[in-house]
Amino acid sequence: MADPRRTARVARYKPPAAETNPALEDPTPDYMNLLGMVFSMCGLMLKLKWCAWVAVYCSFISFANSRSSEDTKQMMSSFMLSISAVVMSYLQNPQPMSPPW
User: Fold this and answer.
1) What's the CA angle centered on 80, arms 92 and 35, to 5 degrees?
2) How far apart are CA 93 and CA 101, in angstroms?
3) At what angle do helices 28-46 and 72-92 cross, to 10 degrees?
4) What is the tens place of the pLDDT at every residue in 22-63?
5) Contact of 77 with 86, CB cutoff 8 Å
6) Where are the alpha helices (DSSP H) in the chain?
7) Of 73, 69, 6, 60, whose CA–CA distance to 28 is shortest?
8) How close are the terminal C-alpha atoms of the chain, in Å?
9) InterPro entries per the record (predicted)?
10) Dihedral (CA of 84, 86, 92, 94) sign
11) Which range, 33-37, 64-68, 92-96, has the best average confidence (pLDDT)?
12) What percent of the chain has pLDDT over 70?
């Protein structure tokens, strides 16, 4: 029984370059990073715990959808800002979070 695959005709997959087609660039990590920073500031300034938790959620989404070639400093600063918003909101008021409605 011979191997039916033809090794000479194997074509390796090469993803299309983002420079040639800007529609392939996914803006989700950037939007989530911005939303995380906005919610972190709302959580810190307005002492809203749910805003701080939404900021952590947005930071995780931004981290999960980012590419390895992107700048990690901005992502880590957004993540640390959201964590500090949660910590500071619970240090100022240790009661459990009340529903926002």
Assistant:
1) 90
2) 19
3) 30
4) 656 778 888 999 999 999 999 999 989 999 999 999 999 998
5) no
6) 28-46, 49-65, 72-92
7) 60
8) 69
9) ASTER (IPR005351)
10) negative
11) 33-37
12) 89
pLDDT band at 91 (very low <50, low <70, confident <90, very high): very high
Are the C-beta atoms of 32 and 62 separated by less than 8 Å? yes
How long is the chain? 101
Instruction: State residue 56 phi and psi, 5-degree precision.
Output: -65, -40
Tokens of 95: 């009661």
Whole-number Å distance between alpha carbons of 42 and 19:
36
- Structure token digits, residue 47: 């002492």
Q: Which tokens in the block code for residue 42?
A: 């709302």
Helix (H/G/I), strand (E/B), else coil: 64: helix
**Does the pLDDT at position 98 exceed 80?**
no
Question: Which tokens belong to 14?
Answer: 């090469």
